[in-house]
Amino acid sequence: MPPTAVSAATAAAAAAALPSPSQRRVPAAKSVWVNPKLPASHPLHHRHKSAAELQQRQHEDRAIDVAALVDALSAARTAADVAAALSPHRPVSGRLLGALLSRIPDPRRGVALLDLVAPDLPPPALLIPYNLLLRSACRAGDLRLASGLLLEMRDRGGVSPDAFSYSTLLAALTRAGHLDHALTFLPLMEEDAVAPDLILFSNLIHLALRGGDAPKALALFSRLRAAGIRPDLKAYNAAVAAYCKSDLIRDAKRLLLHDMPADGVAPDAESYSPVLAALARRGRHLAAVSLFSHMRAVARVRPDLSVFNIVLSAYGQLDLARDADRLFWNMRRAGVAPSVVTYNTMLRVYGDAGLLGEAVHLFDLMRSSASGGSGGAGSSMKPNVVTYNTMIAIYGKSLEDEKAGSLVQDMQANGVQPNAITYSTILSIWMKAGKLDRAAKLFEKLQEAGTEIDLVLYQTMVVAYERVGLVSQAKRLLRDLKDPEGITKETAITILASAGRVEEAAFLFRRAANTGEIKDSSVHRAMMDLFAKNRRHRNVIEVFDEMRKLGHLPDSETIATAMNAYGKLKEFDKAAALYQAMREEGCVFSDRVHFQMISLLGAQKDFEALETLVGELSHDPSIDKRELYLVAAGIYERAYKFDKASQIISQIRSSNGLDVQKFR
């Protein structure tokens, strides 16, 4: 049945004219929530009832057939029908209104009901009905209506949102992926003296992390701790992952090994996994293996599948194939069944170690298990495209290019379609084998067939042409990227930037930026790195400003690149303003950013500001104090202030601690 006329008008107006959450009081915008046909509230409706009257009202509420009343309200087609259904029970109590709102599935019909019976209740009693209606709107996915209800509560006299109101709305917004809109309600919570709770912050942090916005996740985590809320395991795990995504591994390890135990929070495998992955990604494989040993022997944490996969790969990078082999075959004893990712990792370990026989044996074991043989791994061990790509690369390293080529046909016969990495690997193998014509023909066929040509394939062919001296063909491919077909402009810009083609990348970036085709912040970072390498510092700032216009919160390395560009341009005030603005926004900096700001102050000869900043940073537990004072000493030395520099070095060597006050 369609909602009542009152509810339809109210909901439609709400959807069309939802006010901005940043506005504290907007009577004109909120007038759409007021039903002008409702009678004005009478003071008698708000006077306190005696205990006997309240007991009688509760007794009458229990005697009402709520299910039948809900059916009557759901069948109502006009405001008069709703009023007629409720007339025997007027004035409606808060208890009855709550029972009705919790059972009516249509939140817009609930709005009409609330508008009708609101005069029966004192304003403070409307909080629970509003919260029930807000929850119903969130469950129905009508977040615009839910936002409007919360704003109406703020504008209505005598009732204001509580922690449940905000938590319900913000949780729904975060689940729906509207992080930026959810964050606009945080200042309103402060105005209403409603403190965000741990669950709310955890939801916001996780949403930012899932959206790839690690800087925003870290800013929220810092805000959580500043609010005096002790993080739980979920919040700590999200923060550790955000630090690792921002390449702030030391801060992540500090949380994992110091802050979590200090707060009585026992880390689990999910806590260790991102740190291990970040260490492996940075090439610090020995540190990853050491942390894995600490995890098992000291922290007594049982590794999960992702941890095993990371450590197996680290063993392979350390040329410890036998240790990886032993760990792999003992996984089931630890209660963790290997997955196809684990098998693929071991194939790569065997291939890097030159153990072709072991790799072929494991590959055959996967194929036999997939065909119902005695592999015992089940259908989950069926080779996928990564498996075939790994084996093709292994055959290529063994100079068996014919076997590599036949494996492409084998994977297609088994229903596994090659991807860009497959073709890129084959092209590289054929290039190394001197089969340039064969590789060029394959690339042309892929283009003619409309196969998606991605970053990997283009880079492979450009590098291949340049290696064999076919510079004209390489330039032709790069020219094609200036007007790309079949690939996005973002991909084309990334390819050109990776190839170091400044002019081509800059031309395409400006054209795409003007048409609003660049949404991924990684493209901005690639262009900033390209311009910085070529000392085009003004262009670095232009790209950074474009990135900020799109609302991206830059990570630590991006801020460092921008500050370096300002320094090269002698625009020290802008660098300082950027540093301060990013700190106020809650960005978490690496030591490099702080040290760069100190260096810029030294270049500006502003030693008073330098000492002030060093004094602030000396109390930050995440800063490497020794490096901090060495940077400060170097600046004084370059400024011919040898006494200051000598005093700092002496303090570093002394065993009495490092008190920056002594340097002044």
Automatic annotation (TrEMBL):
Instruction: Decide whether keyword Iron-sulfur is in the record.
Output: no
PROSITE patterns for the chain: PPR
**Domain PROP1-like PPR positions:** 189-284
Q: Short name of one Pfam family for this protein?
A: PPR_long
For this UniProt record, give its keywords in alphabetical order, as a comma-separated list.
Repeat, Transit peptide
PPR repeat windows:
162-196, 197-231, 232-267, 304-338, 339-369, 384-418, 419-453, 520-554, 555-589
Q: Which InterPro entries match?
A: PPR_rpt (IPR002885), PROP1-like_PPR_dom (IPR033443), TPR-like_helical_dom_sf (IPR011990)
Q: Which domain of life is it from?
A: Eukaryota
Query: Does the record's keyword annotation contain Nucleotidyltransferase?
Result: no
Q: Which family does it belong to?
A: Belongs to the PPR family. P subfamily.
What name does the UniProt record give this protein?
Answer: PROP1-like PPR domain-containing protein
Give the species. Answer: Urochloa decumbens
| Phylogenetic lineage | Eukaryota, Viridiplantae, Streptophyta, Embryophyta, Tracheophyta
